Each structure stands twice: as C-alpha cells, then as structure tokens.
Amino acid sequence: MHLIFDHLSAAIVGATVMLMLLSLQLRLTSMNVEQVSTYMVKNQASSLATWLEEDLLQLGENIDKTKEVPFTNPVDSAGMTVSFTFSRDSIDISVVPPDTFKIDTRLELKQTGSHVSKGDTLNVFRLVRSTRINGGAWTESGSSSPLLGFFKVDLLDANAQPLADPVAAATANPDAVRNTRIKFFMVTPFETATSAIRRVYYGSTLLIPN
Question: Hey, where are the domains in the chain?
Fold first, then answer.
C-alpha cells in the first residue's frame, strides 16, 4: 500500500512540475511575441515618421508663394486625412542656365483590413506615397506598413491653430500657413492577453520653409 501511495505521490509531483514548466514556457513564448511585436511596430512607426518629416519639410521649397499655393486642402473623412498633395520646385543644374522642375507629392490613405484589440475592432490602413514631375503621370514611390489606425494632416497658422480652408487663406495671404502638423498611430501586428503596448502614437509640428 505504501508503495502505491509513493508512486501516486511521485506521479502527482511529476505532473505538477510538468504543468509549471509548460506554464513557464507559455509565458516566455508570450513575452517573446510581445517583444517582437513591439519592436516591429516601433521600427515601422519611426520609418514612417522619418520620411513624412523629410517630405513635409520640403513643402513649397523654391516656389514663389505669392504666385502659387504649393498644396491642396487635406481631404478628410471620418476624422482622418485620406489624401493630401503638396509641391516643391527642384533645380536642375545639368543644364545651362539652370532650370527648375516641379515635384508633386501625394499621400493617400488606403484601407487594408481590420484589427482586433481588447475586443474592439478598428479599420487599419496603409499610407501610399506617389510623386509626379512637371504634371506627368503619378508614380507610387513608397508606402507605410498596413497597420495605421489613424492619420491626420493639419495646416496651421502662425499661432499653431488649424486653418479650415488653408488654400483660401494662403491665396489671400501667402504667409497665412506657417506649419504642418502630422499625427498618426500604428497598432501592433499581433497581441497577447498580457500585451503592455498595443499602439504607438506619433505627432509632430513642422515649419514650412519660407
């Protein structure tokens, strides 16, 4: 009888240890998933922020703003910017005398699907960048990851207040629009029940060159 109880006790202890090891393994796997997911979304958000800033800091570059407004009004839908086009002039030094050519850049928000986070479902998007030269055909020249949950462009006055009609304001006064403001957030590609980071937010206000 004692032998039977010894074997039973050993079996219970062994099963308990096995369950503890499995639980630990699952937790470690979950932590690894969280780390990979967080790294991915932070890296993708940083990359998007970098090329948005590089583009928008060139808005209106080399353009006489007394003769031309170098942007369109942002097109918004459901509180997000779905399209925004802006321009700059580039100088061609390969010819004598140097010539200029116009580069238009268009940002378009395109839905890619949906994402579930803590039981809530939200639409996710990809930001597509296209360019054209001297009014030619548009050519896609880059895009974000398909994990954008929000994107917004505002054109601001000298007091950093959004303008309801930036084109009309800039037509009346070329110095009316002084800054661009961009905001977005990205969701993580996958989540676990214990995920600490589910979204990465970004916002920046950029001075428009004179």
Answer: 49-207
